[in-house]
Write a structure and sequence with these properties.
With 40 residues, this protein is mainly alpha-helical. 72% of the residues lie in helices and 0% in strands. The protein has one domain. The protein has three helices and no strands. The protein is globular.
Amino acid sequence: CFEYIEEMIHKQEAIFDVLRLLVLFSITNLGLPKKHFDYF
């Protein structure tokens, strides 16, 4: 799923859509892994 979010960022999709998926990803995975968090 995170690869899809990265792809959305590279395609410059709407920020609200990207943030919505990031929040859902974070909630369902008990947070963002440090390596992914450092990416942003």
